[in-house]
Specification:
With 270 residues, the chain is of the alpha/beta class. Helix content is 35%, strand content 22%. Helix 5 runs parallel beside helix 6 (167-183) and helix 8 packs across helix 9 (258-269).
Length: 270
């Protein structure tokens, strides 16, 4: 469990980017964080990942204080982060070298097994010996995800991971996230893409550095006013579900992943 208690963050000589943030992320929960540009989403992701420290307040990860230097090594094992641009996280030219980078302390056979398993989870096992410069941006992002998975973390932060990739690449990322949810990973997913809120168990909306709304996925249709209030585009899929509801056809959002929901809508409308 990650517990964020009265956390405030500000840049040097600047205004508060985040103000008195309080939230809890339960084990095996997927929380999607949304908000306009400048609302503090990415800063919150970096705080949760331990990359930066709060100016006020405390963040606990399984009762470990992220601000305590003696916990740094243990926390690094527990959490990984995937940023917008995969090329900013890639160090090596070769896929195998890149994925194995975080596994230097493991025995050779264990490293090989971890690499194969993590690449398999992102459907890139056949790219083991490829040069990264030959891959598409979407494929590079999947390699970055596999590198995070190779460390076997409990928590993963995705910071707008589909911003720079095409629609096919986005779909691949969605499949991966859905599968990681099923495997029991705890996921924090930061996004500006409306449809991606449907990956969540719970949606947290930031506005001007503060949490203004927390909505469970199954309650989205009852909170449509929130989207307009905070200038967040409503997912097209939700609009379709709403129209079906008006026709007396009920679909429980809680029961469906994004992929399954889209397929169900096709059948209902088709």
């Amino acid at each position: 469990m990650i517990s964020i208690n009265n956390v405030t963050y500000r840049y040097k000589k600047g205004k508060d980017i985040l103000k008195e943030i309080n939230m809890t992320i339960q084990d095996k929960e997927t929380v999607v964080i949304m908000g306009k540009n400048g609302s503090g989403k990415s800063t919150l992701g970096k705080l949760i990942s331990g990359i930066i420290k709060p100016k006020e307040g405390k963040i606990l990860m399984d009762d470990l204080d992220l601000a305590d230097k003696k916990n740094k090594k243990e926390i690094r094992k527990k959490i990984g982060i995937v940023f917008q641009n995969p090329e900013n996280q890639i160090i090596f030219n070769n896929v195998e070298d890149e994925v194995s980078f975080a596994l230097k302390d493991l025995e050779k056979e264990k490293v090989k097994k971890r690499i194969e398993e993590s690449l398999d989870k992102v459907h890139m096992k056949d790219k083991l010996n490829e040069d990264l410069y030959e891959l598409s941006l979407g494929q590079k992002q999947r390699i970055v995800i596999s590198e995070v998975l190779a460390k076997q973390p409990k928590y993963i932060v995705f910071d707008e991971p589909t911003t720079m990739i095409d629609s096919k690449g986005k779909e691949e990322i969605y499949h991966i996230v859905e599968n990681l949810k099923k495997e029991g990973y705890t996921i924090v997913y930061i996004t500006n893409v409306a449809e991606e809120m449907l990956l969540a168990d719970r949606i947290v909306i930031l506005n001007e550095g503060q949490i203004v709304e927390e909505i469970k996925k199954e309650d989205l249709l009852n909170r449509l006013d929130v989207f307009e209030q905070y200038d967040i585009k409503m997912p097209i899929v939700l609009e379709l579900v709403q129209k079906l509801r008006e026709q007396g056809i009920e679909i429980d959002l809680k029961d469906y992943s994004l992929d399954v929901l889209v397929e169900k809508l096709k059948k209902k409308l088709g």
